[in-house]
Amino acid sequence: MNDKELYQQKKQAQLDEWKAEIDKLKAKADMASADAQIKINAQIKTLEHKLDEGNSKLSELTKATGEAYDSVKTGVESAWDTLASAFSDASTK
What we know:
By secondary structure, the protein is mostly helical. It has one domain. Helices cover about 90% and strands about 0% of the residues. The chain has three helices and no strands. It has helices at about 5-30, 35-65, 65-90. Helix 1 packs antiparallel against helix 2 and helix 2 (about 35-65) runs antiparallel to helix 3. The radius of gyration is 15 Å and the shape is elongated. The N and C termini lie far apart (about 40 Å).
């Protein structure tokens, strides 16, 4: 397996972990009060949107080759930083 494939697998694994975190938040929302549900559901919507963006970037990366790969990889790193920050913020709230 080459570096590109390993990198893609690593990013896919992170997306899968974040998807599991969203599922945990959904379960938490189901048990929360109405006010808390509103806040949690808003966070979930934001996180799902960011996760979709991450999936899109990963898809772009999978299709990229050569010099385009390096450019797309930079975009993926930026998207991952944003995702990580969003999940960090959600976990502290």
